[in-house]
Amino acid sequence: MNRPHIRASAILAALLLQPVFCTIPAQSFELVKPETEQDVSLTVGTGQLIKVDSEFTSLFVANPEVADVEVKSPRLLYLTGIGVGETTLFAVDDNDDVLMSAVIKVTHNNAAITEGFRRVAPGQNVTATTVDQSLVITGAVDTPQQAADVMQVAAQFVD
C-alpha cells in the first residue's frame, strides 16, 4: 500500500471507532416532582401556620417578594403574604426529600378595600377584585368626589 492510502485508512478507522471510545455523558440533573402539592391562599399582610409531618432542614420560597416564611420549630413554619402574586414553597429534609410543596397565591385584601369603599361612598355598589397582580375596581358612584375618594382608598392598598 502506498502512504496516502494508509493514512486515509487510518483516518477512516479512527472516525469509525470514535463512537466506541467516546463516553456518553450521564444526565446531570433530575427534576424533582413532589407527590402532592397544595394551594395556600393569603391576602397581603396575613399569615398561615403550616405544620409539616416530618422535621425539615431547609425551606425555599421561590419569590420572596410575594411571601415570607419563618421557622417556628423543625416541623412548624409561619407563612406571610408580602405582595400580590404567586410563588412556590418547598420544605426538604436532610436527605433532600421534599416534605412539602405548596403554591402560594397572595391577593389584595379585597374585603377590606370594599369596606373602605362603603365608608367613602355609602350606598354605592363598588367592589374590588384581584386579577393577576392588578387591583380591579368595578361599580358606579353618584359624584366625582365619591369616585376620587374610592380611588384614594384603592391607592392605599396598591404598592
List keywords for this structure.
159 residues, alpha+beta, Immunoglobulin-like, four-stranded mixed sheet, three-stranded antiparallel sheet, elongated
Give a written overview of the molecule.
With 159 residues, the protein is an alpha+beta fold. The chain folds into 2 domains: 70 residues, Immunoglobulin-like; 46 residues, no CATH class. Helices cover 26% and strands 36% of the residues. It is built from 3 helices and 9 strands, in the order αβββββββαββα. The strands form 3 sheets. It has a 4-stranded mixed beta sheet, with no helix packed on it. A 3-stranded antiparallel beta sheet has the order 2-5-4, with no helix packed on it. A two-stranded antiparallel ribbon has the order 8-9. α2 runs antiparallel to α3. The protein starts with a helix and ends with a helix. 17% of the residues are buried. The model has no long low-confidence stretch (mean pLDDT 86).
Q: Return Rg in Å.
A: 29 Å
Low-confidence blocks of residues: none
* Average residue-wise pLDDT: 86
Helix percentage: 25-40%
Q: Can you tell me the overall shape?
A: elongated
Number of helices: 3
Q: Taking strands numbered 1, 2, ... along the chain, how are they ordered across the largest sheet?
A: 1-7-6-3
Just name the CATH architecture of the largest domain. Answer: Sandwich
End-to-end separation in angstroms reads 83 Å
Q: Give the CATH class of the largest domain.
A: Mainly Beta
Q: What series of H and E elements makes up the topology? A: HEEEEEEEHEEH
Specify the structural class: alpha+beta
The number of strands is 9
At the fold tier of CATH, the topology name of the largest domain is Immunoglobulin-like
